[in-house]
Amino acid sequence: MAAENTPMLQQYRRIKAEYPDTILFFRMGDFYEMFFEDAEIASKALQITLTSRHASQNTPPVPLCGVPYHAVDNYLARMIRQGFRVAICEQVEDPKTAKGIVKREVVRVVTPGTALDATILDARENNYIAAVFSPAMLGEKPSQKDQLVGVALIDLSTGEFYLGELSGVMRFQRLLDELQRFEPKEVVVPESHAYSQQTEEQRVLADYKAACVTSYPDRAFQLRAAKQVLLDHFQVHSLAGFGVQEASSGLSAAGALLQYIQETQKSALPHIRKLSLLRHDEFMLIDFATQRNLELYRTINDHARAGSLLGLLDKTMTSMGARMLQKWLRYPLVRIADIQARLDAVEELKKDTIVRGDLRDLLKGVHDLERLITRLTLSAANARDLVALKLSCLRLPEFRRLLSALKSPLIAEQVENCDELQDVAQLIDRAIMDEPPLTLREGKLIKPGYNAELDELRVISKEGKHWIADLERKEKERSGIASLKVKYNKVFGYFIEITKPNLHLVPDDYIIKQTLVNATRFITPELKEYESKVLGAEDRIVELEYSLFQELRQSVSHEVERVLRTAETIAVLDVLAALAEVADRNLYVKPEVSDSDRLDITEGRHPVIEQMKLDEPFIPNDTRMDCNENRLLIITGPNMAGKSTYIRQVALITLMAQLGSFVPAKRAEIGTVDRIFTRIGASDNLSRGESTFMVEMNETANILNNATQRSLIILDEIGRGTSTFDGMSIAWAVAEFINNREILGARALFATHYHELTELATLLTGVKNYNVAVKEWNDQVIFLRKIIEGGADQSYGIQVARLAGLPAAVIRRAKEILADLEQDRHGEAEHHFTKPAATSTASSRKKSVAPKEQMSLFGERPHPVVARLKDLDINALTPLEALNLLQQLQKEC
User: Fold this and answer.
1) Fewer CB near the last or first residue (10 Å), C or N of the chain?
2) Is 641 annotated as ligand-binding?
3) Fold of the CATH domain 128-278
4) TM segments (predicted)?
5) Binding site annotation covers 766?
6) Residue 780 — pLDDT band, cuts 50, 70, 90?
């Protein structure tokens, strides 16, 4: 390696200056090299050796590291997963013909949101990149009506493109919900805003920690510039056809995002064919708290797909189907006709087990059409990708034959829309070898018969090798040297090698090419002439095969719209078959979905928990809810008895029905809901200075401010993060607010340990009490897991603590303290909530307490003998042990 002023390093520095925020992978022969600071960063990230070189003692050492070009995908994946942006700089001219330093250019920039390689992407999940914009991010002061936040999302690997606008006082919470719902790996924001810590948008991005934030020039977010980028890309005069023309902030985000991806990919992105508006009125909305609390996509504790609702339902056979199922789960339907169409299709496939089994077997052989065609359009596909596309297309006619007899309109629609793409399959089959190499520069890509010039060159190459063999035989006969060999190497080409003892037999027309210790190598005019012809043919074969492959790849990429349309139909069929398979395996029933306000579930079950290997059988439960007499169900009972499981299963059954799935129940009537809200568990947000109680109140406020009468609300403990009376007052007021039909009147399940809330059922219409049945036996509590009408009279907390393994001394002392507290409570003035007045607020009154005596939590302890007797398990003692124990106790007395 020469000093820093060498032409190569000058070229490196010039290219690096154009991509300062990336790690530059600089192609040098068979390696991608990194220098200076990039080398130091990459060596740590990739755990590879960092070296340095210099021309002499007078030149500073240059840090460097490198990775082999044939293994670059694995190293690239590791860089991207750590959040780095990598610029791929290739040699764009042949080093053999280059005059001076080889010309190099950055051919693409790979970022977490623009990755295409299979080693980086999760095949069963989308890989979104987002852009966020509001006028305030550019320092503008919009009017009240223009206070909107625009968001755009693209999955480069599949061509999906969405935009939306969020308004209202909760727009920033909704922005966080959208980011959590789509889980983009990268978020693009205006450059002037990227380093601000003062705006609400920046605080949202700080809360959303799953993506790297990339700054992009402000001018790209200007509405006029952004719209022009979109118009040019879709080659239209107006965006009205996409239904997005009025979404100014969304368009600013969308145009900037599209331009950013075009620049990183050095491509026009022809596979992005449409722009869709995120219309929240067409789907059930699920905020992030609900996604997390119901464990829709991942579990709360270990963030794993296994154990989530998605993990349970995902029996899809293709990666396209897996991604489609996640979209359905992300946005359940609200239109009855759309829901019913899915349910009818699932029902037909559930009943016809033979067709379903054949369909799932057929789906196994279909590769990821969306990502294959994307790689083709972006010139990133290899010959094996084309073969995978061909094999998938060859299966497509079987779908029509298999499903033509089914009656479901949704299935019939998919069959009708499924382009069989046989012309594409035939084109690839004529051209590409059945088992081509992974690389594109080594030949053996194109089949014989596809191109006449290529066939002729192959004949020359093949015959040339035969000619060499014949030449060796003839020269042996002519010279009389039996050990004569015609050989080849890359340095000297073809030559005749003769050992030293036979040199006196060498013919006069042999020309010395190289002298070795034990042999001499010769060339003849005839051999030299044929060498040029054979070797030229082999080089030309490789060049021509690569050129033909590029032409074919370009031709197939023109069918992008047909392939993507077919990919969508295959994905829908895959999801329907998967839901039918799950329903059949798990004994689910078809729900009755209507626009009524009834939630009537008979023997409902939690879909995930019932599949776990538990020590006891899962106990199903009924649910009766409506917006009249059964609006608010107060659920009481001890911890671990099943309250949380029960209220969650009602939400999950409702959600499953509206995404088009059968449900775990004996019977289910589901009056559609527009939103599901949950307030469950305890968490904090210390980075924003929010305590557990503040987070709880924020989530509760979100529910009360955004729920409608058509919503389903799931509350598991309200007010537990503050003092008892403060918490009870808040819980009471929240319950009143939800139940009041003039204010909200939504259906709600409210699990609580505040037994005082059961009084609401006697004061308010629409409130019903339920509790989880338990059985007491020998100071033990047995959970029956059955929801029964009525309120619980105690929480059994000490019994649960015993089950958890608290020391016996702690349990014993807790009982003493509880007895004192309960006795004191009875002696104190009664605390109760009165019936609400016209203002719908609850009031409480407290009588004065005489200061005659203060209750002591740590009063006189009982005699040790009495304590030991209370802790005895008499049934476990043998007669002899009992006598011995009595003798010991007698001594202690």
Assistant:
1) C
2) yes
3) Nucleotidyltransferase; domain 5 (3.30.420)
4) none
5) no
6) low
